[in-house]
Each structure stands twice: as structure tokens, then as C-alpha cells.
Design brief:
This protein is α+β, with helices and mostly antiparallel strands. Helices cover 16% and strands 33% of the residues. The protein has two domains: 67 residues, Winged helix-like DNA-binding domain superfamily/Winged helix DNA-binding domain (Arc Repressor Mutant, subunit A); 124 residues, Umud Fragment, subunit A (Ribbon).
Length: 228
């Protein structure tokens, strides 16, 4: 079942496709749904794709395929139709990979893998992430890593981590933790009775322990992107 906003967005995309043959921009989608930022559109598109209603195509700018419609929108003669954007030519030495698609996620600033930094609350840019990297049906976002406290977990300064939004964690999960509603950090989560330990993966950093009411899990690490 789709939410009202998801249904509104799917209807807007289909209406524009039928009328103009071109996809609406993210700004147009944002304005049509009366949202404050494009990050809300990214979350809605991700949700529609995860539920099998649309598909985003790799190597093409603003290319969407409507796979199916909910019962409330079904009309006689409907068949999946591609919303075509400009094709992006791959580098000369690159070979196209068929059947691989990517999703754009908002990069919500930088996250400390070291001493906690101020809580993250803005979108710095967007990044294409392979759909296979995303897990479950939840919302996802990305963060740029600052610091070296998680290097023994394979997370380096400058990496982009992909985070699944959730407010719970199992012992051993690497999470985005909000400390005292003021500082955000990327650490391994451990519960010790009524206390929460945030463990680094670098012996140069101490484990920090807080009463559980001072630590809020903001998401769990599900993927990593590195540029060389």
C-alpha cells in the first residue's frame, strides 16, 4: 500500500510522461507535492522503487520507468513506458553493465569517525548508489566520513558511507549515533545494561560510554563507496 504522498508523486510522474514525454525535474516534483526540500522527493522515489512501481536506469540522466500502477490508478491499456532522459556516455575504456541500476541518495554532510562533530542536518550534495547496496524497505542516506577512528573496520577518512535509517541497533552494528542531541559520530554499538558503549576501530581512540538515554541511533551502516 502506498502513502498519499507516494501516490501523488507517482500520479504526477505519469501525468507529465503522458502529457510531455519528458520527466519532471526534482524541483518540479518538490513544488508539485509542496515539499520543502528535494531530499523528500528522493525518499519517495526510493520507496516507490523498493515497492516495484518505478525503476531508475543507470547511465541515463533523469530516466525513470513506470513498472506498474496501483489499483487506484490502473487504466485499460496501460503498459510500462520509459521516461527518457539524456544518455550519459561512459568513459571510453568502460563497458556498460546491463541490468544494473543506481539510486541517488542525499549526502547529509560529514560524519565523524573520530571525535564527534556537530549533528548533521543539511544536504551537501547527492550521490548515485547501486541499488543492490540498499537493504530492506527503509529510507537511506549517505554521509562523508571525517577521521580515522574506524580504519580497522575498513572505513577511511573521505569515504562515503551508506546508512539505512533506523532507531535501533544490535550489538556489533556500526551506527550513526547522536550523542546528547548535539554530536553525531560513526561507531560500533554495544549495549552494557543501562549504558551504551560507542567503540572505535582504532586503538588510538577510547571507547566512549554514555547512559542509554543520551544516545540515539540514527541509522545503521549498510554500504561504503570509495574514490581513488
Amino acid at each position: 500500500m502506498l502513502t498519499r504522498k507516494q501516490l501523488e508523486l507517482l500520479d504526477f510522474i505519469k501525468t507529465r510522461m503522458d502529457a510531455d514525454g519528458v520527466p519532471p525535474s526534482f524541483d518540479e516534483m518538490k513544488d508539485a507535492l509542496d515539499l520543502r526540500s528535494k531530499s523528500g522527493i528522493h525518499r519517495l522515489i526510493t520507496a516507490l522503487e523498493e515497492r516495484g512501481f518505478i525503476r531508475r536506469l543507470a547511465h541515463r540522466a533523469r530516466a525513470l520507468e513506470i513498472v506498474k500502477l496501483p489499483d487506484a490508478m490502473e487504466k485499460p491499456g496501460f503498459s510500462p513506458k520509459l521516461i527518457k532522459g539524456d544518455k550519459v556516455d561512459p568513459p571510453r575504456a568502460a563497458l556498460p553493465i546491463e541490468g544494473v541500476y543506481a539510486l541517488e541518495l542525499p549526502v547529509m554532510g560529514r560524519i565523524a569517525a573520530g571525535v564527534p562533530i556537530e549533528a548533521i542536518s543539511h544536504i551537501s550534495h547527492h550521490i548515485a548508489v547501486p541499488g543492490s547496496m540498499l537493504s530492506g524497505n527503509g529510507q537511506h542516506y549517505a554521509l562523508e566520513v571525517k577521521g580515522d577512528s574506524m580504519i580497522e573496520a575498513g572505513i577511511n577518512d573521505g569515504d562515503i558511507v551508506v546508512i539505512r535509517e533506523q532507531n535501533t541497533a544490535e550489538n556489533g552494528d556500526i551506527v550513526v549515533a547522536l550523542v546528547e542531541d548535539a554530536e553525531a559520530t560513526l561507531k560500533r554499538f554495544r549495549r552494557r545494561g543501562a549504558m551504551i558503549a560507542l567503540e572505535a576501530a582504532n586503538p588510538a581512540y577510547e571507547t566512549r560510554v554514555f547512559p542509554d538515554h543520551l544516545v540515539k541511533v540514527q541509522g545503521r551502516l549498510v554500504g561504503l563507496i570509495r574514490s581513488y
